[in-house]
Amino acid sequence: MMALESQSPQWEWYYIAGYFFIGGVSAGAYFIGSLLELFGEDKQRAVSRIAYYLAFPLICITPILLIGDLGRPGRFWHLFYSNGPGMPYMNHLSPLSVGTWALLIYSGMSFISFLNVLSADGKLRSPALAGFLNFVNRLPHKIYAAIGSFFGFFVAGYTGVLLNTTARPLWAATDPLVGSLFIVSAASTGAAAIALAMTWNKAAPRDANVRLELFDRVALIAELVLIALMIVIAGQFAAPLLRGFYGFLFLGGTVVLGILLPLGLNWFGRKPANAGHSMVMLTSVLVLFGGALLRISLVQAGQL
Amino acid sequence: MNAKGMFVDTSICTGCKACQVACKEWNVLEGEPSHFEKRPGYPYTVAANFSGRSYDNTQNLSATDWRHVKFIEQFNADRSEGRWLFSSDSCKHCNNAGCLNACPVQAIVRTDMGNVVIKQEVCIGCKYCIPSCPYGVISFSERTGTVHKCTLCNDRIHNGLGTACAKACPTGSITFGEVEDLRKKADARLAQLRGLGYDKANLYGYHEAGGLNVFYLFMDRPAVYGQPEQPVVPQDRLFRSSSITVVTAIAVGAAALISFRERGMKEQEKEREKEGKRE
Q1: Cβ atoms of B168 and B21 closer than 8 Å
Q2: Do residues B219 and B198 touch, judged by C-beta distance below 8 A?
Q3: Looking at the partner chain, which of A72, A156, A222 has a beta carbon nearest the beta carbon of B124?
Q4: HSE-CB for A175 with a 13 A CA cutoff
């Protein structure tokens, strides 16, 4: 019998693929929000605000998933501190190690942005926090938005590089495109999450929704192109992703329901400008659903 | 550094599995959990899930099987013709080790003798080293919550002994020593076999993954023995993969800014007005 050339880590879909998705939505929302804060016009502040409201609570879920996956959860702090040399530790050859640090910094930046919008909206009035909030509000917005934006992209993309930097046949054969695919998917799901939250709140300036959908459309088309390229370069190794259960999730869920249908609804259906709230919500939910299935199918099919 | 390693000459392996047993005994490795199950009516666990179609029962390396004698059984349908090939497999202690590169917590280290060891008290069980090994050597243990593999008998070799498997091998198929000396021995053996007409005989592990400290003499192509012909250390692709991702990130950022640009909006509105007129 031929041995497998590399073994499967047997990561559970609800831990690692779940983290890839939720982390991607949070990071995508954050980098859209912070880019608009840095370079956008005042009109787009509404989008930034919603993005910051989403990014931090979502990223709070992810340590639970990541630590839950560990064989020894109580030792998670080894990721940051090595007893050997007795100092903070990072392995620059390991996307997992670098990504952990990026996630930590990103969480910090998204926390500051979160507090900032909370206090700006007058939702944090506790006198106990006043001193702290004063301090936070005095931090230069642009600087932590820039740092957060950079690490947001990092968190969105490193997970794909992490998969590509292995010897599993599917993940190795799709190198070097999964990082790009995950960044584009983070952008589309992040934009969809913002659109969904704005519509839900009925807080959406019509203009913002149109722009979000425009951006989402660009991201979805890029995603489609990257998926096609990825399948071509993977050749025979793409089989686990195209056949069987994960083929069904990937082709049926991600490609058809998560990309083609939302694109179709935008293009051939009603024009986005005239789209009602329910249409925005439907397309957003479809895009998020497709993004989740993209992570699940790629991570799990690579382990077959 | 005079790295220590092993030379596995598969041409004289008889498939006796003494190395597998010696490894289990010295390293106090329990039975492979997936090979035993509880059955109603039996007070003890019953052997199950062995391959059942080969003399090779364990089939692969695992957290409790650090050595595995591969049985390559090539027979025709009526078994009138065929051949056996044996190869005792283990961690190869690569000089460019994918597992060591991937470990985020410095649990996988190289000792002064060149062998790659997992520090059990440091490993967090993230399992990222498992897909990072191009040979599929490392495995996760549910019992300890950490990963395990051959240590090249780290305790023995640091106390002047050879590895347990090499000690137990009755034919001299596995020899322990300094890699430099072992290579001379391997070269001589290859020349001898070639001289006898075994043209397919080849040495595996001089160049793969930066050179393997545990290397092999095979009687057929490495793929026949289930070894990758061109193993790629995953981190060799890291730079390219990261660069392409960075370029994409910049493009996505630019797309976001353009989508929200004021001018683009006005053009859109103009278009919409035109469409309105047409309707």
Answers
A1: yes
A2: yes
A3: A72
A4: 23
Q: What does the angle CA B194 – CA B195 – CA B201 come to, to the nearest 5 degrees?
A: 10
Alpha-carbon distance of A144 to A150, in angstroms, equals: 10
The predicted pLDDT at position B44 comes to: 87
Q: How close B182 comes to chain A (CA, Å)?
A: 25
ipTM for the complex shown:
0.91
Residues A105 and A151: beta-carbon distance below 8 Å = yes
Q: How confident is the model at residue A204 (pLDDT cuts 50, 70, 90)?
A: low
Map tokens 């190289």 to a residue: B110
pLDDT of residue A1: 29
How far is it, in rounded angstroms, from Cα B114 to Cα B94? 9
State whether residue B177 sits within 8 Å of chain A by CB.
Answer: no
Q: Which two tokens mark B189?
A: 């053996």
Nearest to A161 among B101, B228, B241 (CB): B241
Nearest residue in chain B measured CA to CA from A11: B127
- State the smallest CA–CA distance between residue A132 and chain B in angstroms: 32
- In this complex, is the C-beta atom of B237 within 8 Å of any C-beta atom belonging to chain A? yes
pLDDT at B1: 57
Torsion (CA) B168, B171, B173, B179 in degrees, nearest 10:
70
In what side-by-side order are the strands of the sheet with B214-218?
Answer: B174-178, B4-9, B214-218, B202-204
Residues 6 or more apart whose CB falls under 8 angstroms from that of A116 comprise A52, A136, A137, A141
Window 58-117 of B: residues touching A by CB (8 A cutoff) are 59-60, 70, 89, 98, 101-107
What percent of chain B is modeled with pLDDT above 70? 91
Structure tokens at B143: 């019992």
- For range A287-298, the mean pLDDT: 97
